[in-house]
Amino acid sequence: MKKVTKSTIAMAVGVTLVLLIAWDGPRNRIELFMERGSIENAVRAYFQAEMQRDYPKLYACLAPSSAYRRAHTYQQFLEDVEKSPVKIQEYRIVDIYRLRDNHDTKTYPGVEKYVQVEVDVDLSFADTGTKSTCNYCFTFLKEKGAWYKG
After folding, report:
1. What digits encode the pLDDT tens for the residues 1-56?
2. CATH class of 6-149
């Protein structure tokens, strides 16, 4: 029987770590493929609520652990959205990418995953009567199995 040396163990651990790190990218792409429908549903729900000014539903689409939800009550949220002159007329999902695990569970213990959602948004401004198309990248979070806007 061969004697196992410390250098052999260290090399095996190193190879294992490299494989785990290299696997992270393909694993996230596979997970994104499998999660895409749920993410798109969350994005659609958020924008439909925004366009219909369905404020209870809109607030429910915001991640419970998001900085905004943690800092604002529903009443404060209502004050913010009701005075905004900006209205979303239409949106188009451009891309969904960069699905990743939560590596900061101390700050965001309820977050399982993050993903980026790029969206083109047609806006109208009630105060100026102007319109604009903007490209935004939103972070969506997965908490307790559900996707929310971050």
Report:
1. 566 678 778 777 777 666 555 556 778 888 999 999 999 999 999 999 999 999 99
2. alpha beta
> Under a CB-based contact definition with an 8 Å cutoff, are residues 56 and 64 in contact?
no
Confirm if 117 and 140 have CB atoms less than 8 A apart.
Answer: yes
Q: Which residues pair with 149 in a beta bridge?
A: 62, 140
pTM: 0.81
CB neighbourhood size of 105 (10 A): 11
Domains of the chain: which residue ranges?
Answer: 6-149
- What is the Cα–Cα distance from 58 to 47, expressed in whole angstroms? 8
3-state helix, strand, coil in the chain (%, to 5): 45, 35, 20
In 3D, which of 124, 62, 39, 64 has the Cα closest to residue 90?
124
